[in-house]
User: What shape does this take?
Amino acid sequence: MNLKDSIKERFSPKRWFAGLLEIPEEGTSPARYKVLRRNISLLMLMITIIPLSLMAFINYHQYQAALKDEIVSPLRVLVNKTKHSFELFLAGRLSTVRFIASAYTYEQLADEKQLNRVFRVLRQEFEGFVDLGLIDANGVQISYAGPYSLKGINYSDQSWFEQVKVNGVYISDVFLGHRRFPHIVIAVQHVTDAGEMWIVRATLDTGRFDDLIASMGLDPQSDAFLVNRNGVMQTNSKFYGKVLDSCQTCIPPVSFEPNIIEQKDSMGRDVLLAYSYFNRTDFILMVVKPRAEILRAWYTLKSELLLVFCASVVVIFLVVLRLTKVLADRMMESDTKRELAYREMQHSHKLSSIGRLAAGVAHEINNPMAIINEKAGLMKDLIELRQDFPDKDKFLGPVRAIIQAVERCRAITHRLLGFARRMEVEIELLDLNEVVKEVVGFLEKEAVYRNIKLRLHLAEGLSRIASDRGQIQQVFLNILNNAFAAVADGGMVSVATFEKDIDTVGITFHDDGHGMSEETMKHIFEPFFTTKKGRGTGLGLSITYGIVKKLGGDIEVQSKVGQGTRFTVYLPKKQPGEELGKHDGRIESVAGGR
Amino acid sequence: MKIETREAAFMGRITASVAHEMKNVLAIIKESAGLMEDILSLGEADPAAHKEKFSRVISNIGQQVGRGVDLATRLNRFAHCPDEIVSSADLNHVVDQIVVLSRRFAKSKQVSLEAGLPEKSVILVTDPFRVHMLLFNCISVLLDLAQAGTRLNVVPVQPDHETAKVIFSSEGADRNGKSSFGDPTGWEEWRGLIQAAEDLKAVIEPGAGPVVLEILFRKDPR
Amino acid sequence: MEGLRVLLVDDEEDFVTTLAERLRLRGMNAETAGNGEAALERIATAAPQVVILDVMMPGLSGLDVLKRIKADNPQLPVILLTGIGSTKEGVEGMRLGAADYLMKPLQIEELIQKISEALGKAAGGDV
Assistant: This one.
């Protein structure tokens, strides 16, 4: 694996996550639970806050977009509609003038009486017309109906005159006329089939413009107005100037479709500018909405979102920290309880082991007792059932047999006494060979009963070790019981002791029983693992393991299915950090053998 | 001393006591047989004269055998106590067992130890080993306080459906001087109780006269 | 009871020979066997009328012998002898067809009583 891969492997997030989920296994030290707490807290915080943030982030942007749309779309529609209205209005007025230019002859229009009559009707039917005039091909106003005296004025050098001649129509920007109020001019050229040309010119005031703008129904903070492509105000604006004021900053990028842009206005406010260029004229419809206004809803939402987010994070923190504390405390409590219970069970197991030895003795003693009983009974029979008193030899037999049986019982009882005495002592100097022989002695009867060959290969001069006799007996007894359970009748169990190294002794238990699979071997020292279906608590080997470890030793197992099993127990010669317990003279009895 | 060590010590003590008694039994049998052997090998040619004696000796041997077997049976039963941490037991049997197993200790103090067993069984769901140990400790304590030649009674009682009591009383005891303990439910409490029984020695003055000790059990603590 | 053929099966020689002798003193025709195989052989050849069988034996266990006996001679009454700690084998033996069980050390009168009961049952009783 090259360097890059190994670094990746070392610092990969997967490993880090896995590390978070690991808990140091040893014991119930508070450090373990602190680590646990920290890890769980971290994990919980991550899985709650990250999605929350993600959601908040997504919501934020979605809301922003949605709100913008909500503000923006209607605005766009409004601009469009209003622009349309304006264009309709202008197109309508243009049609009217065009109609006049086409429907009447030059002569009729040149006749001022007739022109006035047309003008009167015009004013009646169509709002806003200020005057009406006929201009000949030379640019001279031939006839005029209206408030001003414009008859006879020559417009031939004015640009609009040229424009009309080229385009056929002309609509002017707003300008201040003689009477100092804003209006626009609509001029239409008419050419007859004969080639005659005249122009009808009408002036309109911009009242309709104001109406149209007013009809937009904007809120007091917003503003709408018309401006021309040079930045000259065509209508009054609330904030940006009166009619014909120049507003250089008001010229937005060209767009004939309603467009919305954000910019700072002349007052320094952030505004949303919705506008559209008019297609046929120079006008630009502008609607200005202060961003603050539009976005008030958005700002409220944003601050609410932020508040909820922060509050959630705080709550999450509090809950997670509290929860993990409670969790870790509970775990520690239950682990402690479990360990206590396990220790109790361990201890109970030890007592049971001792009990088993004592019970074994009780069983053993029964047979010689039965013998004594029968012999005594026989003697009784001899006395009672025979006519003559039998000769002394007939009696000596049973008597001697009784004495022998008594000896047998005494040996058993002595053994019982021996091990009963030792139940109190904790650490003493042990001759392991003696302990092996003692434990094997307890199982001798079963071995004979089942024809199991017991072989002992005890190293001579094996160093004494300082340890707990009772516990070591328990270990040996447990392993041997398992061996006995594994072998068939007629099988073989052997025990060997040896010196492993200068600090350690070893004891091997070998049997030729049914053995274990690799899979089973992995689990045998686990609590509650048992291959005896229905029987056995599965605790024996796990407790044995615990004892060996506690005594500072080690235990190994090798096995092959169908061939047998070998358990090896290593024990230190000296207990780490422990002094020899009180032996009050019993060392002598151990040294001297029972 | 750790409770575990004390429990192992208790087991050892009882086992050793049984072993000692068994040795006594065996000694008697051996002596009896030895006597007969002597009579037969060293005595006069006509053993018929000793017919009576033989019968007695043989009968004695038979009795001792009975005693020995009883001891072995009790030992066996006692040895199986730690097998179950919780099981149901007849308090009467437990009291009987403990009294018999403790008699040797009582005899050495010249106190006679008797169990007054009621007719009906008193069933407890409990840790049998620890009940044995607790009862034994109570007897030990009272034996230490009792005067030679007196009697110590152990009587199981069922005051009501939920509880059972064991009353230990020295002969001619005055019931007003009693101490009673709570009922054991958890193992921690067991330890406290066993400790309390041993501490009792410190509270009651030796030779202060008869004393009554009551142990209250809840019949099924589950 | 006179001349009753009894087979005693127990691996403890001193015990079984003494007991046999005691039964002979009472007029019975008592024989012994030291293990299960020998017992089965004896049953086949000598046709005892009742078998006294120890449950705790090495090799072929008492219960195994009982099963074999009951397989071949279901009418043959078998009385089991148990020791301390083998009472449950006695109970199991009853389930397997033993007539009764007794605990060692035994009272010979009790044994004789149980023998006659077992014979009575085998003769007239439940089939």
